[in-house]
């Protein structure tokens, strides 16, 4: 029996190490630059290569970061600013010039996966950009196709969850009718060019609008009795899948079920101002750590970009807006979510002292390494009482329409400023978890 235990523990350790250290093409991270304390690009490149992160999303074009990742296995999503859209829409020549300046110099040494034309354009304050978004995407598509080595670069745009008018239950997901004149042609463009629909779901804001213990467990991938969707027959056990499921249902209802979904942003702040429910290190570690574990357990994981690599200390707004980072500027983790292959030695100057009255990020002694899933931060809740319609996707007060309209974080927070079915499990991860349970029972 002792030999069997040792063998199973060894086998479990092998599978666990393999799954966490291998590059994973479905895990990406956002790199915001509204900060004055970011580490040198070369340090960021070394940090990324020390993790299983395989994709980096920028909100613009940062030549130093792009060059630092040349020749690595890290692929990039680059972005145009919302302010760039009018000129890109008005002139193919302007689009060609943008590609010549911002894309061509980095090919073929850098792996550029996609260009996002703006961020949350259809739901931002300037409605004039909505009609210009598709022409800008079309002109960039032509310009990129004409550039040497650019034919495979995808052109898309990132949406907030507010493009949905209906999301609860997920199978009823539908896009807002008032966005149809702008959105439907964009969906056709994505379909024709095999480009993804990019969206920013944030379970954190769903919890903010419904701060009950059972909602928190649902948002953090913790044990809960689930939320049944009578339209699909699926019982959702976490908010992330429910939100992605609603987006997929909306695409299907619009006639574009074949358009893939990419989660361009999702995350959880580790601190906040008084009254910002749930913004704690414990919850941030639970959400992001369990999200990573969840993605690794899916046979066909949705490509997901965690927000964010570092804090952005110059962002306005509540403290939570400056507290989404996974790493400090000295490259040490604020908390561990299972992405590091090995410990990283600090190689940048220490973080400047915070302003008076502002809590600093937790120190190295507070970093917590998550145990193998399932992680339960709280005791399993009682049978789940469904939230009122709309709260499952976190409705912000003051937004027009019914309370079924989903929430998104404020688009000014960005630097420009899932599944609908049951999960199938990778064979290796099934064995991984089964071995863990079996070994624990033996002991």
From TrEMBL:
Q: Which SUPFAM superfamilies match?
A: (Trans)glycosidases
Q: What is its EC number?
A: 3.2.1.39
Q: Which InterPro entries match?
A: GH, Glyco_hydro_17, Glyco_hydro_17_plant
One GO term under biological process is: carbohydrate metabolic process
Name the segments for region: Disordered: 346-420
Q: Which interval of the chain is the signal sequence?
A: 1-23
GO molecular function of the protein, one example?
A: glucan endo-1,3-beta-D-glucosidase activity
Q: Which keywords does UniProt give here?
A: Glycosidase, Hydrolase, Signal
List where Pro residues composition bias occurs: 346-385
Pfam families hit by this protein: Glyco_hydro_17
Q: What class of enzyme is it?
A: hydrolase
Q: Catalyzes what?
A: Hydrolysis of (1->3)-beta-D-glucosidic linkages in (1->3)-beta-D-glucans
Report the sequence similarity comment from the record.
Answer: Belongs to the glycosyl hydrolase 17 family.
* Protein's UniProt name: glucan endo-1,3-beta-D-glucosidase
Q: Specify the species.
A: Platanthera zijinensis
């Amino acid at each position: 029996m002792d030999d069997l235990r040792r063998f199973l523990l060894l086998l479990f350790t092998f599978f666990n190490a393999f799954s966490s250290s291998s590059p994973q093409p479905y895990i990406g991270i956002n790199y915001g630059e509204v900060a004055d304390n970011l580490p040198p690009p070369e340090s960021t490149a070394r940090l990324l290569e020390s993790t299983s992160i395989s994709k980096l999303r920028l909100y613009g074009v940062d030549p130093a970061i792009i060059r630092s990742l040349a020749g690595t296995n890290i692929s990039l999503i680059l972005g145009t600013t919302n302010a760039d859209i009018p000129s890109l829409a008005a002139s193919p020549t302007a689009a060609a010039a943008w590609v010549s300046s911002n894309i061509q110099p980095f090919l073929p040494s850098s792996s550029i996966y996609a260009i996002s034309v703006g961020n949350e354009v259809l739901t931002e304050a300037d409605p004039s950009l909505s009609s210009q978004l598709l022409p800008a995407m079309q002109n960039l598509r032509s310009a990129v196709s004409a550039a040497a080595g650019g034919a495979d670069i995808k052109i898309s745009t990132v949406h907030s969850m507010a493009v949905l008018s209906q999301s609860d239950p997920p199978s009823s997901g539908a896009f807002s009718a008032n966005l149809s004149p702008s959105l439907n042609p964009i969906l056709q463009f994505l379909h024709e060019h095999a480009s993804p629909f990019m969206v920013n779901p944030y379970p954190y804001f769903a919890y903010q609008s419904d701060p009950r213990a059972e909602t928190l467990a649902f948002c953090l991938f913790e044990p809960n009795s689930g939320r049944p969707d009578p339209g699909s027959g699926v019982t959702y056990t976490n908010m992330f899948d429910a939100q992605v499921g609603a987006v997929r249902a909306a695409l299907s209802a619009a006639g574009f079920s074949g358009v893939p979904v990419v989660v361009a942003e999702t995350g959880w702040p580790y601190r906040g101002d008084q009254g910002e429910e749930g913004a704690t290190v414990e919850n941030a570690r639970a959400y992001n750590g369990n999200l990573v574990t969840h993605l690794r357990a899916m046979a066909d994981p949705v490509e997901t970009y965690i927000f964010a690599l570092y804090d952005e200390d110059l962002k306005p707004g509540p403290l939570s807006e400056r507290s989404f980072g996974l790493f400090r500027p000295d490259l040490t983790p604020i908390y561990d979510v299972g992405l590091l292959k090995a410990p990283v030695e600090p190689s940048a100057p220490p973080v400047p002292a915070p302003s008076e009255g502002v809590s600093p990020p937790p120190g190295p002694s507070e970093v917590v390494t998550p145990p193998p899933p399932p992680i339960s931060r709280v005791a399993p809740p009682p049978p789940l009482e469904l939230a009122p319609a709309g709260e499952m996707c976190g409705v912000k007060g003051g937004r027009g329409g019914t309370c079924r309209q989903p929430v998104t974080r404020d688009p000014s927070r960005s630097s420009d400023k899932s599944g609908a079915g049951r999960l199938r499990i990778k064979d290796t991860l099934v064995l991984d978890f089964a071995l863990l349970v079996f070994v624990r029972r033996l002991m």
